[in-house]
Specification:
The protein is mostly helical. The protein folds into 2 domains: 16-102, Orthogonal Bundle (DNA polymerase, domain 1), CATH 1.10.150; 119-316, Orthogonal Bundle (hpI Integrase, Chain A). It has 15 helices and 5 strands. Helix 1 (16-26) crosses helix 4, helix 3 (58-71) packs antiparallel against helix 4 (76-94) and helix 7 (133-144) runs parallel beside helix 12.
Length: 330
C-alpha cells in the first residue's frame, strides 16, 4: 500500500490567507473583523499584482494606504482598519514586525458630534414604522440604548421579565452588561416570544440544525443549541448556511440591514430632516437620560463604554447653544 504522504514531500503549508484566518479564530476575533481583515490583505496583494508580501516593503504599504485615501477617498476609520490588518498580518503571519511599520502614522479621525433626536422626533419615527418586529426592535434601540447588532443578537434567555432587565452578552469588545427593560414593551416582547416558540417547534420537527452557540458551547453542551432559551429573539425568516461550519443549515438572527431599512423608511415617513439612523436612537437614549438628571457613570454603564470620556461627548451636546446657553440675540 502506498503511504498517504511521502516523507520527502511533507505536509503542504496552508496558504497565507488561510493561516491568517486560523490565527484570527485562535485569538477569538469577531467574525466580521475576521472577514474585514482578510479582505484588506486580499486587496493589498491584488493591488501589488499578486506579489508575495515578503517581497514588499514600507513603500508598498504606504502606496496602498495612499491609494485608499486619495483615489478611493475612504474614511479615516476605514484606512485605520486596513493599517491594523496589515500590521497584524506582517507581525503574526509573515513574521516581519519591521521597524518601518510602526513609523507609519495612523490617520486622524475627525471629531464629530452625534445626531441627537428629540423625544418628539424619536416617537414620530417609531410610530412611522409599521407595527411588528421591526418597530419592536427600533423601540429596544431607543428604550435600552442597544447597538443594532446587539439587538439582532438577543436570545430568548437574555430577556428577564421578572426583574425587567435585558442582559446584553457578547457586545462590542466581547463585553457584557445589563440595561433596563421598558415596561411598555413587555406585552410586545411576550408576543414575540410566542412567535419564536412556535417557529422553534416547527424547526425541531423539520430537523433543522441547532442554533449557533458561542465559544464552543455547542460541543460542551450538545443539547443546549436546541433549547428554547438559546434561540434568537428575532430569528430570520429563512434558513441559511453557517459560514464557519460548511454544510450546516441553521436559522440565524435577522440581518441588521432589515432593521436599518425599516428605520430609514420611518425617518422619511416621519419627515425628520436630521441625518438619523439606528444608532441615533442609542445617542438619544444617552442624551435623554442625562437630561433627566441621571449621572454620567450610570449612563456609561448602561451604554457599555469602557472609558467615561466616550460617554462625555453627550455632555458636550447638552452644552451646545440652544440647549444650555441663551443666545445674545434673544
Amino acid at each position: 500500500m502506498e503511504p498517504l504522504m511521502s516523507a520527502q514531500s511533507g505536509p503542504r503549508k496552508p496558504k497565507l490567507l488561510d493561516q491568517f484566518r486560523d490565527f484570527l479564530r485562535l485569538q477569538h476575533y469577531a467574525y466580521r473583523t475576521e472577514e474585514a481583515y482578510l479582505d484588506w490583505i486580499r486587496r493589498y496583494i491584488l493591488f501589488h499584482d499578486k506579489r508575495h508580501p515578503r517581497e514588499l516593503g514600507v513603500e508598498a504599504v504606504r502606496d496602498f494606504l495612499t491609494h485608499l485615501a486619495v483615489e478611493r477617498q475612504v474614511a479615516a476609520s476605514t484606512q485605520d482598519q486596513a493599517l491594523s490588518a496589515l500590521l497584524l498580518f506582517y507581525r503574526e503571519i509573515i513574521g516581519q514586525p519591521l521597524p518601518w511599520i510602526s513609523g507609519i502614522e495612523r490617520p486622524k479621525k475627525p471629531q464629530r458630534l452625534p445626531v441627537i433626536l428629540s423625544r418628539e422626533e424619536a416617537q414620530r419615527i417609531l410610530l412611522a414604522i409599521p407595527p411588528g418586529q421591526a418597530r419592536l426592535m427600533a423601540q429596544l434601540l431607543y428604550g435600552c440604548g442597544l447597538r443594532v447588532l446587539e439587538c439582532c443578537r438577543l436570545r430568548v434567555k437574555d430577556i428577564d421579565f421578572e426583574h425587567l432587565i435585558i442582559n446584553v452578552l457578547e457586545a462590542k469588545g466581547d463585553k457584557a452588561r445589563r440595561t433596563p427593560l421598558p415596561v411598555s414593551l413587555v406585552p410586545e416582547l411576550r408576543r414575540q416570544l410566542e412567535i419564536v416558540t412556535c417557529r422553534h417547534e416547527q424547526d425541531r420537527a423539520a430537523g433543522v440544525g441547532p442554533v449557533w452557540m458561542p465559544h464552543a458551547l455547542g460541543r460542551k453542551y450538545p443539547k443546549a443549541g436546541c433549547a428554547l432559551g438559546w434561540q434568537w429573539l428575532f430569528p430570520a425568516a429563512k434558513l441559511s448556511q453557517d459560514p464557519r461550519s460548511p454544510g450546516t443549515q441553521r436559522r440565524h438572527h435577522v440581518d441588521e440591514t432589515y432593521l436599518q431599512r425599516a428605520v430609514k423608511a420611518g425617518v422619511t415617513r416621519a419627515r425628520v430632516l436630521k441625518h438619523a439612523s439606528c444608532h441615533s436612537f442609542r445617542h438619544a437614549f444617552a442624551t435623554h437620560l442625562l437630561e433627566a438628571g441621571y449621572d454620567i457613570r450610570t449612563v456609561q454603564e448602561l451604554l457599555g463604554h469602557k472609558d467615561v470620556s466616550t460617554t462625555m461627548i453627550y455632555t458636550h451636546v447638552l452644552n451646545r447653544p440652544g440647549l444650555a446657553v441663551r443666545s445674545p440675540l434673544d
